[in-house]
Design brief:
about 375 residues; 7-stranded mixed beta sheet; 12 helices; Aspartate Aminotransferase, domain 1; globular; about 40% helix; binds 4'-deoxy-4'-aminopyridoxal-5'-phosphate; 2 domains; Aspartate Aminotransferase, domain 2; single chain
Amino acid sequence: MIYLDNAATTRPCDEAINAAAENMRNNFGNPSSLHKAGIEAEKVLKNAKKTILGKLGLEGEIYFTSGATESNNTVIMTLPKTYKHNGKKIVTTAMEHPSAAVPIDKLCEQGYTAVKLAPKDYDNFEQAVINAVDKDTVLVSVMWVNNETGYLTDTAKIYNGVKRRNPKTLVHVDGVQGFCKAPPRTLKADFVSLSAHKIHGIKGIGALFVAKGVRFEPLLYGGGQQKNLRSGTEAVDLIAGFEAAVKAYPDCTEKYAALNSLLCERLSAFEGISINSFNNTKNILNFSVRGVRSEIMLHFLEESGIYVSSGSACSKGKQSGVLAAFGISDENADSAIRVSFSPYTTEADIEALAEQIGKGIERFRR
Ligand code: PMP
């Protein structure tokens, strides 16, 4: 199998699997228990928090969640409880993942307004986000790296500009696709959502980073774990796997740049290819193959064991519309392919992919 769909999910690395298995076998205590087994389990949480904070390079707290969907929902859906006097305007983008976009729409049904900015409309996207903030803006929610195109947003620049305009406005970053991949200097926020399964951790574990001094209300009520802010027995084994995955993720900046230019070069040999990614982290490349629908190409590649994604994330056959935020036409969105690399991706994988795309074009182009 040549797996090139790492923005969807990743193969858990041996380090993560081993750490999780080790804890399941030998460290299965409940971190809330007062005895030694509990204390040993609690140590796993403490160490994992330290590792994740170190990787983020930010000062604050880590709360473990079931994944980024829960982290995003926690920040957005609890705004009316925590910050009801800070205004009812949300500044966000037209490229957000549904796990942020849908909760924001839900708040709009409850009297909030959302301004959704599209990268295609601005030369300086970060400045446009900053300029949209006013005294009524309670939250800015932007993703760090877009999951469909790899578009990179400098959230540190946004954070600094937003705080100058309105110090009360909170900045939330969906950091799922940037974590361990994008330059850390482009990250600053009050809240950051993370997910382990995009970095070779295990599915079902994520985190919410909360900056020092920033309050939030819990989404879930119950046993009062994690300082009463995220009830539920902590998933110690998955958390151990999450930490191991963070530690194991190598710096692939150069590797991804090389794979990306190799793929672009190979694609440029075919007619009718348009590249949909710009200003992107190099681990994701989105392109359209004129005259061949995404699903047709995806399943053709699958026949030779190559796994990619249709370039426009689909839900029940409906396009997400995110590519339109980058100025991609409907026709190109229909034929878009997303390729996403991992530290395990090789040049031979890219050569095989390019060869098959060439064959697919010959066979299916109308
Ligand atoms: N945000 C982004 C940008 C994502 O790509 C994903 C996963 N597709 C999520 C949030 C949701 O993460 P999880 O699967 O951990 O809920």
